[in-house]
Amino acid sequence: MRENLLKRLWAEDKAAVNGWCAVPSSFAAEIMAHQGWDSLTIDLQHGVVDYQTAVTLLQAISTTATVPMVRVPWLEPGILMKMLDAGAYGVICPMINDGEEAARLVSACRYPPLGGRSFGPIRASLYGGADYPAHANETVAVFAMVETRRALDNLDAIMSVEGLDGVYVGPSDLASALGYAPGFDRQEPELVEAIDLVLAKAKEHGLVAGIHNGSTAYARQMIDKGFRLVTIGSDARFIAAGAAQTVAEMRA
Amino acid sequence: MRENLLKRLWAEDKAAVNGWCAVPSSFAAEIMAHQGWDSLTIDLQHGVVDYQTAVTLLQAISTTATVPMVRVPWLEPGILMKMLDAGAYGVICPMINDGEEAARLVSACRYPPLGGRSFGPIRASLYGGADYPAHANETVAVFAMVETRRALDNLDAIMSVEGLDGVYVGPSDLASALGYAPGFDRQEPELVEAIDLVLAKAKEHGLVAGIHNGSTAYARQMIDKGFRLVTIGSDARFIAAGAAQTVAEMRA
Amino acid sequence: MRENLLKRLWAEDKAAVNGWCAVPSSFAAEIMAHQGWDSLTIDLQHGVVDYQTAVTLLQAISTTATVPMVRVPWLEPGILMKMLDAGAYGVICPMINDGEEAARLVSACRYPPLGGRSFGPIRASLYGGADYPAHANETVAVFAMVETRRALDNLDAIMSVEGLDGVYVGPSDLASALGYAPGFDRQEPELVEAIDLVLAKAKEHGLVAGIHNGSTAYARQMIDKGFRLVTIGSDARFIAAGAAQTVAEMRA
Amino acid sequence: MRENLLKRLWAEDKAAVNGWCAVPSSFAAEIMAHQGWDSLTIDLQHGVVDYQTAVTLLQAISTTATVPMVRVPWLEPGILMKMLDAGAYGVICPMINDGEEAARLVSACRYPPLGGRSFGPIRASLYGGADYPAHANETVAVFAMVETRRALDNLDAIMSVEGLDGVYVGPSDLASALGYAPGFDRQEPELVEAIDLVLAKAKEHGLVAGIHNGSTAYARQMIDKGFRLVTIGSDARFIAAGAAQTVAEMRA
Amino acid sequence: MRENLLKRLWAEDKAAVNGWCAVPSSFAAEIMAHQGWDSLTIDLQHGVVDYQTAVTLLQAISTTATVPMVRVPWLEPGILMKMLDAGAYGVICPMINDGEEAARLVSACRYPPLGGRSFGPIRASLYGGADYPAHANETVAVFAMVETRRALDNLDAIMSVEGLDGVYVGPSDLASALGYAPGFDRQEPELVEAIDLVLAKAKEHGLVAGIHNGSTAYARQMIDKGFRLVTIGSDARFIAAGAAQTVAEMRA
Amino acid sequence: MRENLLKRLWAEDKAAVNGWCAVPSSFAAEIMAHQGWDSLTIDLQHGVVDYQTAVTLLQAISTTATVPMVRVPWLEPGILMKMLDAGAYGVICPMINDGEEAARLVSACRYPPLGGRSFGPIRASLYGGADYPAHANETVAVFAMVETRRALDNLDAIMSVEGLDGVYVGPSDLASALGYAPGFDRQEPELVEAIDLVLAKAKEHGLVAGIHNGSTAYARQMIDKGFRLVTIGSDARFIAAGAAQTVAEMRA
């Protein structure tokens, strides 16, 4: 089975630099895939992408060595399994609040006996190879998002679920949950403390910690802290930022 | 009929700042449309867009006041008329070489008696208004690309065609045609001279001159020279540039 | 943030005339949007539309001042949040049976602290404006469909949920639930009584009452009664009715 | 091979009632196909439809006995042959001006020795049957649009081309060409005379005459005159008209 | 209402030969539909198909007499009802584990009073006929997949649910659940015994038993045993197998 | 620039085994691409594929080392250049009849000074590399189809055009043109003689000869004769053949 290069990076205690695909276009994704990311995550939650389009984005990413991941819209078995069958090598699931939800996430992503994932890796076995069924459980990376107060209260329970590879901090929702305005790159002590707690617990449980960032400076700080999956930028943001700057320069 | 804001700019001798849509996604186009461009051109020639997708991009642009234009793949009446019926307020046609080709271009874009455009403005009359048929001929902007040696030799013939609004310089193809490597923002004397000639002839014929640029600095120089439709940047380039820079910063 | 014109109508105790989009075509939706409706609802439940297509319909509606709404397929957080992120200014959710379901609906549609909606208004902030996050909770209209016997038994509980804007009567399902054949414009005393009860309770709770109708005559009666969101007609029905009548006239 | 029911109607000197599909949605087309038309024409010229979408419309129509036709965007061999391969049983080609253009149209639509159509009826042989190649030339109906002054001047040359089944009057373009505002259901003597001339010539040449209409009343007059392919209405118009009338009734 | 030909076959104790559509292309489905299957099942679980595409596949199948079925991704009411509204004449739902899940499945598929399916058969009434609402409950076939250990333990509870037409064995998942490698055409005694038990229970409860197969030889054995819905082959497998064999012959 | 592996095969006097994609699905293409073909040709002429879909097929093929080619619908510059910009590494153009047509084909495919291809390799430079512009002219393979009587009469003129890589025999059209029924794998002496003549002339001009085949046996004979691009099978045929055989086995 094709190796999951993220797992090799993590084995070497290196951080994966992750890009984000929110534009429903396989061409946009292919451009992204050629820029040197370790992985690209197709965002089916807040991105403008659903399953059928996401498959074409997975194909576009598969023209390169970049690892294809997805964020699913919600903890729903149907879409989780469909995206894995389509060849996602990593899954990020939003708003996991407790151990029971984490267990349901893992169950949807792992074949028996570890979980209850249904068998049918129709594109995954093209991308991963004919021996995908035998190695998928240890190859596919599964992340639970920690972004609610309940999740903070249940970190041990969440992280104790066998088969979970990591947790992923959503700073906007976490901030909202704690009474702050949404946004990335938080400096508020209460939020920094919460983020640090997630990281510390992840290390304790031997899990990978990931986080969403708004600037490369902050993302690099997160790597220095110990985060090993750092997301920075998205196709949608690059378009908006590049266009806004260009127009501003022309109007100056 | 909805006014073509580009024509107002030109009446005031102001330059239109034009963006470029090459990504086949109406969401990408909508992001672009919110960044303050005077106009956006959907590129059906070198962009990854064909008719059916282009209609959704026109709709996305139509959620704002940005003027929607298209570049067609070639001087073919079918696609020219389809894009106008879909509500394009401007058309750029590649590789017009002589007066006869310019006349065919204009004929495809103008209703009788000026041309031979077939009647059926199915979306154009939604976007432009019920009186679109009466005003389309003077509202829609038609540009012939000047980018070949034959075009340089036939500038007067091309620009004498009644119903043509302007000419648009494609620096890459023009450079190729004259024996240089393709690329924007040319400084070679022979190319600068050719570009200046097109501009001078356009002024002489009372036409708008446009040009494709690779940097805002060059684009602003072109405005200073007298170009009144300056293109700079594209959604595809913004993704590539933004992602490449982000990854570089993370790897630094 | 862009105002929700429906809320202004309701503040003035005026009824909103709502059209219905069931055809998966942004062009069909754009035609609809130009006919003067106060709002258009994209039907992801019984219409032939899913998320990816619905986004293009939202864009098409956004070319006009018509307020874009959606009916989701079911009380599922994934699709509810995706449609809000895509810029829906109103949501109608089918088959809300009790207060707990109503609470889950509201939670999916409202940011903290009112609910648990995840943050990422990717297209909503283009359509609504950069301050969408601050005003979304009071701008977006959320309707629970009342169309089952259990819902009739739990009207107070449903309507007491903070953050719910209104209830929407589905006469076909309500009729089925009470043992009648499905269909609109009910005259049976038991059904009229049920509908009147919903309306009275809505007024009591300070909520907007909405209803689906089969004829303009009935819809106007509903407005006279006090309904303030009246749906009448759909793109699919207009095609079928117009074509059937035309063929009939030709065969006569 | 599946019979072309239009040809049977014409053999019995009956008129075919033809509907028009301009909305790029196979569901809209399927609704249309269930309303009793003799044939439906997918409009790739002024409709919002291109090839890939048109194939799904052909499939939708093929769920019924309604005969599927197309109007192509222009006299271009590529799209003509692609639509025939996709199973169109009739083709209407715009703006045929003289015998040479009519000959090119027929050549693109007929297999050797009658024409130069390339062989590969990939969907046509599913729809028409395995013996499609042997019978296509006499089964598929080919119409040249007569809508320009040059066409009026060349009626005999156009109609003398072997393999042409009929001519189809486009009243809007014909009116434009003769100096009138575009529109259907013309009453101006000069236009009526031109239309009558086309009809008379068609009868003389043993061809079917068709015409586009704006009302059933006019369409029925055209049948009485002798037209045997009368188009009336379109999915796009039914949506617009139905919605406009509904909103008007609600606002009254 | 259009008859469900599968139900006629089963009334005559004949087996239905069922094909499988996993490729998201209405053209691929139309090719399949012309090859003589009794039914075709569009796989929204492991196939590369979601709702919007599935509708076009249903249309493609509807050009023939082949019965259109779907396998849904999961026991989720939203997609179950959407597929039925789109005209599926049969539904297969994965991973039904007990009577309560079977009851939820049936409820989503049956109109009151038998279930809680919401009313709006938008395409189903085109395909099935205007009297679809009156006959859908007895016409549409509903299958629960038996493929987990829990399901084996709850066969009577599952099969006792009124309104269920049959059970469908997924041999791969069943094998996984019992500790074997996934795959079709099982010969292991424990698996054969489990399969036989499902079949025996189905006969006892008067239900149709179905099964997925990997070879025609095994499928025919299953028919001989008493299975009445046997699936064999898929468009995706035919492409892979045909291409692999062709390349092998060329390389030999 | 990424090497064109076909050119390496031809340099070693080896034949390329070419598959054919006629199904408009990137997933179908990806399945094909994993079966070991030297190249895959996306058929935009008789296949059910147009530009926008073809791009996704190119992406799917690009996930493997298989060389992506296209057959365009017709000798039209717009689509030729768009497909090259999209990354096709080979082009087959139907119905080239004489040297002038061959010259137009080559001109559309080659950058100056060899031809007049317009510059903008938007996806080609992702797939081929940043130095695509410098090497495209010698990397991209251009084939003219020889399949008409006029082409047979003009073989020397066609093959003398500088920049043409090869000729490709379309046996069905060639047979039609010479008065035979269409079909592959011709044995008629007149047709064999014509095919042999094309091959001999190609060798004489130093060009690659290609041919479409209906069976591996015939294709291998063609290789033995000297053809170096042999097409055999297509996704559409594999589906039809596999399904037909499976159903036949079940009915036996």
From TrEMBL, chains A, B, C, D, E, F:
<dbReference type="InterPro" id="IPR040442">
    <property type="entry name" value="Pyrv_kinase-like_dom_sf"/>
</dbReference>
<feature type="domain" description="HpcH/HpaI aldolase/citrate lyase">
    <location>
        <begin position="27"/>
        <end position="237"/>
    </location>
</feature>
<protein>
    <submittedName>
        <fullName>Aldolase/citrate lyase family protein</fullName>
    </submittedName>
</protein>
<dbReference type="InterPro" id="IPR005000">
    <property type="entry name" value="Aldolase/citrate-lyase_domain"/>
</dbReference>
<keyword id="KW-0456">Lyase</keyword>
<dbReference type="InterPro" id="IPR050251">
    <property type="entry name" value="HpcH-HpaI_aldolase"/>
</dbReference>
<dbReference type="Pfam" id="PF03328">
    <property type="entry name" value="HpcH_HpaI"/>
</dbReference>
<dbReference type="GO" id="GO:0016829">
    <property type="term" value="F:lyase activity"/>
</dbReference>
<dbReference type="InterPro" id="IPR015813">
    <property type="entry name" value="Pyrv/PenolPyrv_kinase-like_dom"/>
</dbReference>
<keyword id="KW-0479">Metal-binding</keyword>
<comment type="similarity">
    <text>Belongs to the HpcH/HpaI aldolase family.</text>
</comment>
